[in-house]
């Protein structure tokens, strides 16, 4: 059968056969792995449990855990885990030290001393007392001030503790959720929801794009979707590897092109690439004309108008108003949802109908012609997926992308209109490579070379581009997060890399729950819990109108300010679940405010900095001690499970049980419509999380243990195994198009235009960071270095693992990378402790001389604290780089705080300028931090197997 003649129906039939065949090929291997785990278990008490490592963020590496006599003794990669290539890293190995760490929290505890004291006076209490106390306190706050006076706080989470996103707000009756999502993935999801569909920032790296663009992250070490061995292999097999980063990453040393840009100038690079692509006519003509708003016509002579849309989160209405030309602008009584374009074939106007998703005179039938995706370097074991053939215009039209066209408005006035792409090309021309070089420091020839390599198709026969762009965390941290994302999204739009093999696909779709507590499934929208609170009161909506449209979080800075000032209403109590105050804003300010709360609950594994401000501590389980479903939050298509390997210590509980227990303590039904099961147990929650798979949790877990990780492309070919879902009517209302108001991939954002009618941000734009050498030259005189930070560290993940002996031995102190030329000028040598200072404060880290950062740039490490320092806050103020940020500088749309690309000075720490006459950071009593690999205190953290009962 010829590939070009394969229909949708025949593809599905072939897919079943291929899936069976693939299972036959790998079944013996998978069965052998499962049998190995059982062999001899009755004699030696040894078993192997297949699971999912959660020692870092959202990268779900498949692992085998060997358990001997009830103790975990080994963690190794699972070959069935195609998305992690059967590998796992040092953080996986160190998980055993975390699970058996002597400093684990074992029991609920309450504070008996005043806040701010180094000794909180913790006293052990029962879970019943903890739940009763918390419920009473929270209810008192709700009765006195209202639900919004409570807040919930979560960090990077571990899936089972994602209740801070939806579960806690429902339980507490508050819209105020503070979590790392605001500075980590959230802006990418925010921007792509505006331009095409939520989270279509995620790249299908398992498809191995032909050109790999690594933008703003060291995904070879850790990442929020695919990382480590997976991305290393992608880079090695790509025809071209491009690194866009002010720091040369480990993997970036092998890149064909390194674009060493000044921190915070990402959008200037992206718009320069767009200029090169447009000038060289490298855009995907059919996709751009048919599926984007690029041919829509901009009319400056009309008042913005449109129709009523509704906020996704609340359902409340908002008015879309745009200067894009509509039939209603031309004809009295015309349809406002008929978006006008200029057809060059007829030399006249025609329209696209937003309501139906069809062009004038067009009819639609879901496409059936297509073929299995031709992917030369596909990861072994991954289904290829099915690519529908591109749908041509029928009847045939050719919408103009450039030019000026005269139209007659309904009031008789003549007006000259231009296509959206023509306007954007004009904006991008301001960032031609020569101009972009002046802004970013990247040579013009390198900008042009990279853009052409990315946009010129390696294999034109595929019918799609070379792949998307692996853009990561850094672009969200320079005070211009949303526009940065949009500028990069525009590149993937122009080159036809949306929902294509190796392109941007969004979050993996399967019938299992994203989270057992508060996440939703992709096949069922309802989530257990109390009704949603009034989101109109969400803190930060007044400062950031677009945040109300997105509805994904409250603004962290606004929450801190409300706690401090009581305005616009008091916030006096809250709960933190695997979060912290150090991940955004200014950590010193946040710490002071946190300690002023009337009541704070912290659920965690450890005595961490946040716990020192808490009134009640709740001990929770480590990933080796619990079960939960797991699907890729990225686009790998992998799904499986975390499966309990060992018993938790003492009275540690699974996070969903904590949520249910507090609901019960407050008298809030977790399942309000189920009187017989108002507060469900763990078994019910786990069964519910996989119910749409048709299996119970036990059946799902057993299948996973036997057969390994599942590929959603093979298991659900009509949902995840199909590319170009915008062609198939799978993204919005069963009709063709993207999930935007116009059903188009929007370059000119009608959402942004409606919320900011001044028109400044209709297109992606470049804005200088607020404290840069260009925008703040006076500050630059005293603070001449540009900070970047937040890089991945092989043995740590954000603020985690500082108390694990293996990790701390390998990386005992924070490092600031500085160019050797700068270091020599300042008298700084390798390993010296140095002060890093801004007008907001100063901290110390050790100098790491590295030519991989440019002169005038320093790369600092983030979220350091010292578990060995026995005082309130555990010495975070000594080295946490977010102690020196300007908390008032935020992205104007998402509120993401300015964590990179700001100015500092750096100088050597000496006995004369250091407390206690010691350049090494010390606690209040002069005790040095652990700063060498042979510090005997590391041995105090070695695993202990006693006291877990």
UniProtKB/TrEMBL annotation:
Entry keywords, A to Z: Iron, Iron-sulfur, Metal-binding, Oxidoreductase, Signal
Oxidoreductase as UniProt keyword: yes
Pfam families per UniProt: Molybdop_Fe4S4 (PF04879), Molybdopterin (PF00384), Molydop_binding (PF01568)
InterPro entries: Asp_de-COase-like_dom_sf, MopB_CT_Acetylene-hydratase, MoPterin_dinucl-bd_dom, Mopterin_OxRdtase, Mopterin_OxRdtase_4Fe-4S_dom, Prok_Mopterin_Oxidored, TAT_signal
Keyword Iron-sulfur belongs to the record: yes
GO molecular function per UniProt: acetylene hydratase activity; iron-sulfur cluster binding; metal ion binding; molybdopterin cofactor binding; oxidoreductase activity
TM stretches of this protein: none
Domain of life of the source: Bacteria
Secretion signal, residue range per the UniProt entry: none
PANTHER family xref list: OXIDOREDUCTASE YYAE-RELATED (PTHR43742:SF6), TRIMETHYLAMINE-N-OXIDE REDUCTASE (PTHR43742)
Similarity section: Belongs to the prokaryotic molybdopterin-containing oxidoreductase family.
Stated name of the protein: Molybdopterin-dependent oxidoreductase
Species this chain originates from: Eggerthella guodeyinii
Taxonomic lineage from the root: Bacteria, Bacillati, Actinomycetota, Coriobacteriia, Eggerthellales
